[in-house]
Amino acid sequence: MFKKIFENVQNETPLVHCITNYVTVNDVANVLLAAGGSPIMADDPKEVEEITAICAALNLNIGTLNERTIHSMLKAGKKANSLSHPVVLDPVGAGASALRTETTFELIDTIAFSVIKGNISEMKTIYAGSGTTKGVDADVSDAVTEDTVSEAVAFAKDLSARTNAVIAITGAIDIVADSQKAYVIRNGHPSMAKISGTGCMLSGLIAAFCGANRENLLDATATAVCLMGLSGELAQEKAVKNDAGTSSYRAYIIDEISKMSADKLAGGVKIEHR
Amino acid sequence: MFKKIFENVQNETPLVHCITNYVTVNDVANVLLAAGGSPIMADDPKEVEEITAICAALNLNIGTLNERTIHSMLKAGKKANSLSHPVVLDPVGAGASALRTETTFELIDTIAFSVIKGNISEMKTIYAGSGTTKGVDADVSDAVTEDTVSEAVAFAKDLSARTNAVIAITGAIDIVADSQKAYVIRNGHPSMAKISGTGCMLSGLIAAFCGANRENLLDATATAVCLMGLSGELAQEKAVKNDAGTSSYRAYIIDEISKMSADKLAGGVKIEHR
Amino acid sequence: MFKKIFENVQNETPLVHCITNYVTVNDVANVLLAAGGSPIMADDPKEVEEITAICAALNLNIGTLNERTIHSMLKAGKKANSLSHPVVLDPVGAGASALRTETTFELIDTIAFSVIKGNISEMKTIYAGSGTTKGVDADVSDAVTEDTVSEAVAFAKDLSARTNAVIAITGAIDIVADSQKAYVIRNGHPSMAKISGTGCMLSGLIAAFCGANRENLLDATATAVCLMGLSGELAQEKAVKNDAGTSSYRAYIIDEISKMSADKLAGGVKIEHR
């Protein structure tokens, strides 16, 4: 599956409309180009519908949300839904402020998301607001470890059933699930937590991969997660070899994505089906 | 000509006021410093006139335009005109949304631009709105190739006559023209299309080069285009040698600009006079 | 002192709320992670109080201020004061426009800053507005050199007494002072002026170091200044060795910060007590 999905991105050059935070926006743009996609950033309410209409997918990231961009996200998302474009949500910091939490709920209530990607804390915030009274503690621990993989998988499937979106929970171990099927992914390296932007880059990649693989969003998402993680591993090897620090490591990750081949990716994935 | 123009930038350290998109703004700041200029970014309507007054040139880029920054661009542009500062327009995405197209027209109607720089598609959008009824298909093909150079040169000269600005059309082959004279530039490398920001960096450089060479905007623009392209070539050599990916390649381009000398530039330009 | 202060940052991972300019925001995020802290950027008035409440320190930088973010800075600063969180001001460009100068005064009048960091020109602007009629020429020359260190130290102590903040004046020679005590720091390298963002990165670091060392803001600030300067020196050695340009040099600086140890820092500081 990985090879075909990866090749589709390379062959179709999906244009991805990103309304994303200004901290990591340059990384998102460059990682999309590195993976074979193409970025366009536009966040004014007056143009987001037109811009998203010419794209293959939409990526919404609330990392530095404000009133204007929230409005733009809602407009762009509805338009993308009307055109059946894949729409990805990265609810950065949901739970950290009422504005982020309520915006996340409003986005999920208004837009049919194809994929929601976040860390376990953000995902638990979404779960708590998704129609039950279970509250923030969603019967899943605060980090996905080998001991808690099973409960995390069950949580992800449940959240997918509630939101009707593919769920990607990122951490030391990544979970990608729909309501029926889940992947447990063990690519990646702890060094990735020492740089800004790997999460935002991944959201962008997921949008590109879904844009070029609309008939298979679960596998497209899983492939993007593997690509990001594997590139982090390969970059780590180079960083160790060069005695590099974190800034060079960040460049190496994007470098590895740009140098990835379908075969290298297929040979490096560490994925388990649950 | 190249040596003197390049040396003027190094000697005068032109301060460039940039109202530019937030995707590539850091690259623009760093490339200006690398080339011997100095950047200042300011986009609030309350201060843009004062800021542009202390600068040598103004760089307007609509890549992530919004209502507030459009207003700022108009104010800054008028002020720069009143002070006879060079003003550069990079109409990113003109044609992709009504907001971008109409903003481009409003900017051109309101401000006397010294240089307009864009790809052929953006330039055709401008041509279509520049007072004739010829429409978007401006009798020039969609990419400048060896077969279409002559018509592109004629198009650029015509557009320069209509806008009274130096025209820089970027692509595999670059054209820089005023109404009478044109340069065809064959510097650059296809890898530059795999990274974000080369176009925005070039606009910044053009502003700096015009700011330090006000009496010769055509040659200043052509020199900046050559500098960007030659640096892309030299960076490509290094990238191949180091088996680098796209993120390292991006850094190498700015590195090469910072390491450029007047002699190296003069020896590396691939320019033809038409 | 340096070792303990540095280790506190590594051990406490201070979360720093940054309302900072969009030019260098990514560098600020990455340098905070490199030094052992953690960044969160949030600039909407609706959430800044909540966000700053969960952080260890607040970093305000007016590099690309606008009406909305000025409002957010005021709200966040008052909240941080009410929680006794350290608050750092980087008055980028104070003196260059009325908006910047007046905003700087409004921030200083409204918020009790722990540290104010700027170049000599910005600091003189603040001095001029800090309650006397001495005006912009604050009896201190325009650059801190060996000949003018003594008057700069006196100026910094006086400004600290007026603002009740630790004062960090950056330049070829850095001064860090409260009203009683001053450090003269000779770390750093002239190449740092050829890249964008070293000043903004330093403000972020100062906030992190103060957040993890609240009982000793003067020494925390001095340590952050030494860390930035020493990393610039070490990066320069690597840049010379690799014949690198300015973009690689910028990456090397963050690399060196991420590779710093308490011992290496303590061994490399060039600091004098006045």
TrEMBL record, chains A, B, C:
Pathway: Cofactor biosynthesis; thiamine diphosphate biosynthesis; 4-methyl-5-(2-phosphoethyl)-thiazole from 5-(2-hydroxyethyl)-4-methylthiazole: step 1/1
Keywords annotated in UniProt: ATP-binding, Kinase, Magnesium, Metal-binding, Nucleotide-binding, Thiamine biosynthesis, Transferase
Binding site for ATP: K117, T170
TM ranges: none
One family name in Pfam for this protein: HK
Cofactors that this protein relies on: Mg(2+)
Gene3D superfamilies: 3.40.1190.20
Record family assignment: Belongs to the Thz kinase family.
Protein name: Hydroxyethylthiazole kinase
Gene responsible for this protein: thiM
